[in-house]
Amino acid sequence: MNEETTEMIAFQIISNVGMAKSCVMEALYAAKDGDFKLAEEKLQESKQFFVEGHKVHASLIQKEAAGDRLELSMIFMHAEDQLMSAETISELVKEMIDMYKTFGSTTGK
């Protein structure tokens, strides 16, 4: 796989998981305001973006397993980092939303 292809794939991962992180943060802000319906919608939207980013990542793993070696670059390492942080943030935000549901939002709704 050439460097240009790897770079484009890395940007696809970065773009999708960046959107996933944005949506999950919007979910947290909605929950903080007591809008749990919007929070759930944003979590679902986030999940769709994360799945797309993960599919691209999985395709790279499959190519490497088939013998097509990857060129590692800072951009690709950044994509890996963003993928992992999106997953971590998503799990933390889900727990925080559950806490808002249990203990109430900051606006008293």
UniProtKB/TrEMBL annotation:
Residues annotated with Phosphohistidine modification: 78
Obligatory cofactor(s): Mg(2+)
PROSITE patterns per the UniProt record, alphabetical: PTS_EIIA_TYPE_3
UniProt xrefs under Gene3D superfamilies: Phosphotransferase system, lactose/cellobiose-type IIA subunit (1.20.58.80)
Binding-site residues, Mg(2+): 81
InterPro entries noted in UniProt: PTS_IIA_lac/cel, PTS_IIA_lac/cel_sf
One of the GO biological process terms: phosphoenolpyruvate-dependent sugar phosphotransferase system
MF (Gene Ontology): metal ion binding; transferase activity
Cofactor note: Binds 1 Mg(2+) ion per trimer.
Source organism superkingdom: Bacteria
CDD domains on file: PTS_IIA_lac
Pfam families, per database record: PTS_IIA
Catalytic residues (UniProt): 78 (tele-phosphohistidine intermediate)
Protein name, per record: PTS dihydroxyacetone transporter
